[in-house]
Structures are given as C-alpha cells and as structure tokens.
Amino acid sequence: MSLRNLTRGLFQLAMQRRFYSSIQQQVFTRKLVLNNQRFTSVRSFSSIQTNENVYKDLNQFLDKEIQLERVTQKHPSNLPAIQGFEVTTEGPEVTLIRQSGKEKITVKFNVTNTVNATDSDDEANLHAPDRQQSDAEVTQPSSQLKSRPTFTVDFNRGGQTLSFLCSYLPHDYSDVPEQNQGGENQPQPGENENGKLEDFQIDEFAIHEGDWNDSVYSADCAVIDGELYDKLLNLLEEHGIGEDFANQLIDFSTAYEHRQYIGLLEKLQKFSKK
Which ranges are annotated Basic and acidic residues under compositional bias (predicted)? Predict the structure, then answer.
C-alpha cells in the first residue's frame, strides 16, 4: 500500500513537471515568435516627388499675367506727384517729408493690403451672376482698383511731435454731392484719376517725444468734442493735409502698389524657374 502511494506520488510529480514544462515551452515559443516579429518587421517610408510640371504651368501663366499687368499700368515710368513733399520709398513703405518754417511734417504709409474695388466694381460684381461676361471682361483686370492706405502725419516742433493716425472715409461718405458737380467732363478740385473725390478722417492723435508706441497715450477721435475735432482738421488743412492731398496720395499709392505687385509676380516667376 505504501509502495502504491509512493508510486502515485512520483507519477503526480512527474505530471506536474511535464505540465509546467509545457507551459514554459509555450511561453518561450510565443516570446520567440513575438521577438521574431519585432525584428523582422519592415518600416516603410513614403517618398515625396516634386512635380516640375506644376512650376512650368505656373511660369507659363505668369508670362501672360505680368504682361497684362504691365499693359494696364497708368504710370509705368514716373509715379504721380504729391505737391510740396519729398517722397522716399523702401519696399512697400512710403515717407513724405516737408519742412515748413520751424516745423517738420512727415507722412508715412504702407501700401501692403491697401487695395480695394470702387463702388462701380462692387455693383458690377453684385449683378455678375445675372449676366454673361465677355472674354475681354474676364481677361482684363479691373482698372478701378485703388490703394487707400491708413497714414500717419507727424508735426515735429520744439523737440515734441504731434501725431495723427488717419484713414480714408468709406465710399458712401466720399461721394461728390450732385449739387457740387459741374459738367460731366469738368474735374473737381482735388479729384483723383478715377474721377472721384476722396476724403479722410482722424482716428487718433497724440503728443510724444521719440517714437509713438504703446507707452504713449492716444485719444480716440470718435469720442472727443466735435469742435475740437474740427479744429484738428483745420490744423491739418492749413499744413496742406486736406482733400487735395488725400486724392494725390491715393493716386500715388495706387500706382506704387501696382508697381510693387508686378515686382512680386516677377520674383515669383524667378522662383519657379529655379
């Protein structure tokens, strides 16, 4: 009996070892398979190919576009004059300077993102779905695009600077009243090349020494006394910053912005040819 129990115990012990060995073998086998999968996996990379046909197509389009923009230039050689001011330019930035007695008057503006369509173009675009455009209308760029930049005016006097931030009035306010219009072919004083008077408003003003930055307090002209606002406008007018100046500035800015745009297209074409 004791021998039978001993034999049964040895048999059970052997079975447990076999069972344990089989588990170990399975675990080892699974680890081996996973390890093999880990080392045999292949990482794929996507290749990016440049399509030269895209640059070629862009270059061909720019040939026509640049030629068309040059044809529509109103001032291909000399820019319009702004009377009484010395004009200097650097990229899209324009500076006008005039010395008036003890005062130095400086006007600065930037032509970037200043172009908008006139009312005639806006009205035409509203009715565009109702009519079919001719080929000439599709290919010809609008001749009514105008650059109407915001600009600053600085009066430097006695070591201090009186500065104004100005912007053009919306077209609804800059229309010429019918009672002030003469004959159809008679230009009004200060009228720009598009046959329309423009006017501006003062948005802010400040007095400072050095640069006009965020540390300088500025007054919002929308909330100041109306009589004070009129006197500030008269001050600008007496220094030659009035309606005539506003329209001359638009003519200059429009022509100069167009020249900058053509220059940008030429740079884009050179880039596409590299």
Answer: 124-134
Q: According to the model, what pLDDT value does residue 100 have?
A: 84
Which tens digits make up the pLDDT trace of 211-238?
999 999 999 999 999 999 999 999 999 9
Q: Does residue 169 lie within any of the structural domains?
A: yes
221 contacts 205 by C-beta, under 8 angstroms:
yes
- For residue 142, what is the DSSP state? P
What are the pLDDT digits (tens) for 134-143?
444 444 444 5
**Can you list the pairs that 65-74 forms with residues at least 24 positions away whose Cβ atoms lie under 8 Å?**
65/265, 66/262, 66/265, 66/266, 66/269, 68/139, 68/140, 68/141, 69/141, 69/258, 69/261, 69/262, 69/265, 70/262, 72/140, 72/141, 72/143, 73/255, 73/258, 73/259, 73/262, 74/193, 74/255, 74/258
Write the CATH number for 265: 3.10.280.10
Same domain membership, residue 203 and residue 86:
yes
Residues 105 and 234 in one domain: yes
Structure tokens belonging to residue 82: 């702004």
**Structural domain containing residue 1:** 1-30
Structural domains counted in the chain: 2
Q: Summarize pLDDT for 117-152 with one digit per residue, the tens.
A: 764 454 445 545 554 554 444 444 445 789 999 999
**Are both 23 and 154 inside the same structural domain?**
no
Instruction: Tell me the pTM.
Output: 0.68
Q: What residues pair up with 87 in beta bridges, in sequence order?
A: 96
